[in-house]
Design brief:
InterPro entries: HTH_AraC
Oligomer: single chain
CATH topology of the largest domain: Jelly Rolls
Strand order of the largest sheet: 1-2-9-4-7-10
Domain HTH araC/xylS-type: 173-259
GO molecular function: DNA-binding transcription factor activity; sequence-specific DNA binding
CATH architecture of the largest domain: Sandwich
Largest sheet: 6 strands, antiparallel
Keywords: DNA-binding
Low-confidence stretches: 290-322
Number of domains: 2
Protein name: AraC-like DNA-binding protein
Length: 322
Amino acid sequence: MRYDRPAETLADCITGYTVYHADSQDALSDCFLPAPVMLCIFVEAGRVTAKIGNHLFDPLPKIALIGPTTRALHVTTRGGTMVGIGISATGWARMTETPAIRVHNRIVPADTVLNPTAVEALARQIAALPDDRGVKPLLDAQLPTLLRPMPNGAKGGHMPLITRLTALATTDREIDVAQIAREMAVPEAQLRRLSRSYFGMPPKLLLRRARFLRSFVRLFASGDIADSRRLDPSYFDMSHYLRDANAFLGTTPRRFLANASPFLSASIRARMAVLGAATQALHPPGGVRMEETKDIVQPASSSSNDCLDGVLRSIEPEEALG
């Protein structure tokens, strides 16, 4: 497992890079929290299958685009390498004219949505790398080929609104769409269109997902998954939070973590250490500056080499054994 931060010039559009590798061709199942869009490129991999809610995707294309999800993603791999590229709502606006709502809770061939020539060239270059240390430099250099020029006209006017909505969705607040619209100085109908087009869901659902994940991550980090004191202040009580858990995870947080492999725990910790946000859905616009995570990361680094090793070693033995 490896995480890397994108170049500063890409930080508005790309939330991070991930590399997962397994030598064994035995089936290995992992789960992922609901998240924004992810471009996944599989190299020398066996059949990969995935499930979002009750929808099975079998097999996944070798260059797959996972749309914005509001259910947990369960993936089964059979060896090989997966390179993941997190795409923000701003990145989506720069990469495609396809409304993100069309790929909500779906997995599609990336070349049906993104520039097929650029996507296929990127996959070939990744496959030619000798090891994962070359992934970040390659992606930093080549991902601009997926980005179209900053749009003009109406879509150009959407760009600052996308940034503003991203910021509002990643901070503690009441889930009040009317209030969000007032703060953004747009009609509610325009806010709904904006959220569906670039975030892949209505604004209320976007805010609910972020609220749930903020609380889930806090409880996970505290070691007490039932500590109601750490819930987002807009939750009335623990039962309110558990209703959201059932909506987004399909079960309670305790059961979700109990059924997950140690990979999920390591992934949350590693992502926080390297990228500054425990999940992609909580990634603020432009990313997190490394100095803002100095109390989490030591030493500060733009790569995952050293601190990720420390994160993985920090997993308790019984947790590592599942």
